[in-house]
Amino acid sequence: MWTYRGDEPTVVQWLAAIRVGHEGHQLAAKVTRRRHRTLGATTAVLATLSASAGFACLLTAPRTSLVVAAAVLALVTAGTALLHTFLNDPDVIASHQRASAEYGDVRRQLEQAVLSERITDDRLSEIRADWTRVEKSSPTLPVRAGRQAADYLQVLADAATPSAPSAPPRQDAELDEPLKELTAS
């Protein structure tokens, strides 16, 4: 057993990597959910436009341009509906949320071990085994989500790091005249 001093590179690197996994999977789920909603709304709008164009063709004298526009809208609508179906976004969202929760659990285990200031090699091995299991069962983290999570965590770390204290004023500095008068009496 050894005492954690807060600067062991392995533990610090592990904690940073696990945090990126945790935040990255949360971000990936959020982005996928947004894509799912956008694609669904686009499909609904295109279906409405396609139906309107089709009815316009039926109610007016058939013009070639209107018929072609209705057909193109119908094909684009079918394409977006197909894409919406085959991307399987609800399952992808659920798997990223599950991975985020599991990474969060591993992160809390490591943080708790660090706070106890006594980490055994066996405990580190257990945490590493949990981390490996989570990595194997998680969906691939998109590069953009990983990069954005790392940048976000760096901003948080920079904000949490106290800045260097400013140098105290020199005592032998010349005092201006009004201040000399106040301090002299």
Automatic annotation (TrEMBL):
Residue ranges, annotated region (Disordered): 159-185
Biased segments, Basic and acidic residues type: 171-185
Segments crossing the lipid bilayer: 39-61, 67-87
Keywords in alphabetical order: Membrane, Transmembrane, Transmembrane helix
Cross-referenced NCBIfam families: SLATT_4
Annotated protein name in UniProt: SLATT domain-containing protein
The species this protein was found in: Mumia zhuanghuii
Lineage: Bacteria, Bacillati, Actinomycetota, Actinomycetes, Propionibacteriales
